[in-house]
Design a protein that fits this description.
Layout lengths: L24 H17 L4 E2 H10 L20 E2 L4 E3 L6 E4 L6 E10 L36 E8 L11 H10 L9 E6 L11 H12 L1 H4 L8 H5 L4 H20 L4 E4 L2 E4 H9 L6 H13 L15 E6 H6 L12 H18 L5 E2 L4 E7 L6 E6 L31 E5 L3 E7 L8 E4 L2 H9 L5 E9 L7 E11 L5 E6 L10 E7 L4 E6 L1 E8 L2 E5 L3 H7 L13 H12 L1 E2 L5 E4 L3 H11 L4 E3 L2 E3 L1 H7 L3 H13 L3 E8 L5 E2 L8 E7 L4 E2 L18 E4 L2 E4 L8 H13 L12 E4 L2 E4 L1
Parallel strand pairs: 2-4, 3-7, 17-21
Antiparallel strand pairs: 1-9, 4-5, 5-6, 6-7, 8-9, 10-13, 11-12, 12-13, 14-15, 15-20, 16-19, 17-18, 18-19, 20-21, 22-23, 22-31, 24-25, 25-30, 26-27, 28-29, 28-30, 32-35, 33-34
Helix pairs in contact: 1-7, 2-7, 4-7, 14-15, 14-17
Amino acid sequence: VPTAPTSERPVLTPAMAYGPGAVDPAEITVLRTYLERVVASRPGPVHTNVAFTAAYLGYDTTGEGYGGCALDIDDFPSVTCGGTGAALPVGAFVRVQTGSEPLYAEIVYREGAARPDGATPTGATVPPDGPSGESRPRPSVADEAPDVRRELLVPDFTAFGTGLEVEARKADRLRAHAKWLTEDGHVLVHTRPTPGARRSGPDETAHFAAYLLASRRGDLLDPSVPVPLTRLAGGADPRQLRAALDGLLDTVAYALATSDSLRVWQGYALSRARVGEGLLRDGPLGRADLGTLANTLVRGPVPDGRRRHGRTGPKTLRTAVGPWLRTVAGAGDQLTGVGYAVAVCRANLAMGDVVRASDHGHFPETGVKVALDDAFESGGVWRSHHPGAGQSPGDRGTAAAGPASRLPDPDPDLGAPRVTGDDSRSVRWSFALRPAARHGARVPLPTSVVDGLRAAGAGPRSVRLELRHEGAPGPASVRVRQVWFAPGRDGAWGLTPVTWSDDVPPGLLIDAEWVRGGSRITLRTEPLDAPVVVDGRTIRHRYDPRVVTRDGVRGPGTWYGPGAVPELVLRAVRLCGLLTEDGHALLDRAALPRAVRVLELDDASPAPEHGRRVTGGERHRLWITPARLGPAADELIRDGVLYAATGSRDPDGEPRYPARPSDPPIPLIGYDPDPRPATVPPGGTDEAAGRGDATPHLVHGFVRRLPLGSAPSRRQREAYRAYCRDLGKADGTELPPGRTFVGPHYRGR
């Protein structure tokens, strides 16, 4: 039965549909305060998805949960322990099937479950059964299918209040029977990953948003909720709804991450008091046991020192947190129900603190490098690597990536802050704006600035941000806004959310200054002496050519055919090649097939071929072959899009440019950003303005018809794609047949 909206002030507002950067701090405070109450009232961790649902439906934190909401419980999807079905995200409402009445619950945690042989997909070997006595259903045929994933779901049977809460005696009976629930009160299911899903684990929030819009659209548009999504989005267009839902989820995640009283791991929030209580406890899974787990990570792969002859080789140890917790004597009661999710999150938070306190995960006293290998499988799999006597501590310690693996980023610190001055008065630095930091993302800060700001207070704080952007079209102005200085999901502190206007495009160099002891950071851009055009885009301020080369590349297309091979070659050179200071990218020609194959397999969209849809693997066999790559590269070189160069290969097998006379030469393929003078002179006018009777005006980019039989140049096609990206259109946009593109320019009337 529909009920009246919550009597409290709605915690979700239309501004939140645009992300946290568009929200008044007072509204964020209202949302954060409510979510802190939700986390304190729930028995398990609260994921971003669960927090959004609570805020959207008006979760009652006094004990009734969703009991007062207008929900059709018979419409919840059914899950059966040991059954097979579509993957459900954290935050989904479900009916857990039993021999009699179903149990109604909210999925508050899920993870990949080890196979019956005790091996996880990441390769970590874990005990299939521990002292907690978890009972798993017998292996089925689904366990042998390569495209089926075993998942452990943790349901919260208290989410719908006392009216639907399962009685303790019935829950104990179901757990003891170990048929409809495991002995720990969980649900083990077999799911088929959605196309394109990462094998290392899903993007839980993106999965949740897609699930709501596809399967639970009626719940989102229900007029009985405090504020329906259509009002928050300002319309009912599917694109508006998806954009608004993404913005709301980002805002909820930001509110959780910036709370002084919460700790967050992989989207799961727990109160600091609850985390601290577990870490200080002397019993099972307390301080001593978590110390043992940390010692396992840091010292597990260290050689025992008893080897007399030869050099010790590298050793890698993978530790799965969930199965490890089950090996702790006396921990069984803490690993039942939602308590298991609490224990997993608490252990991972503790391990994350240990790693953050080290030198980027490297422990010099043992020579071991520790990192989170997989956050989804088995409660999180941590990788500990000791290089042995044959490697230096900085070596990766892993074999070279295979032909179907992702190529490593040759420039992982591209655009990172670089300190240009540090004295008793202030700290000055510069950084290049990356696309990922444009809309509500976190802006990283130098270590000295982070330490200085944190010295004024342990928790997040408000910072005044001033942007002085001179020389752009229109009046110069100083833009001021309040942002948060807070930690991100990886634990690194930065400014968030910082949203940049359209006249501050990616690639621009930003000069920053923080005066010690203050709470203001000033950002400045520096105009160029003369504007230049790169990739069809006019750049008027000092920029980093390397960032423009990397981030200005076109994304994967919507289909692949013979004509798309040159596009893939160009992307491979720009994304995987070595970068020079002036933005040239050079790729070892021998690595071209591998680089193109990696980029092609990253695109999971189906392709039409002879009237049917084909898979990514088929697409590769049809078009992306070494026999096609060479001619495509030669065509790009003939057209002047790429150029041939000569480099060398060092003793480690890595390509170098310029070539070293002592190393064997190798052929390279190069990309030249080719910055050209813009049509507008430094004063902001063009030649027509000098006639005295004409006022210069901006002509926006447009599509023009070509004479019959003519075709646009490759440069114009690239300029059109860049123009579409600047307008927010999806990658893969192509010029209509028989048309060319005229870029933005100034003209006198």
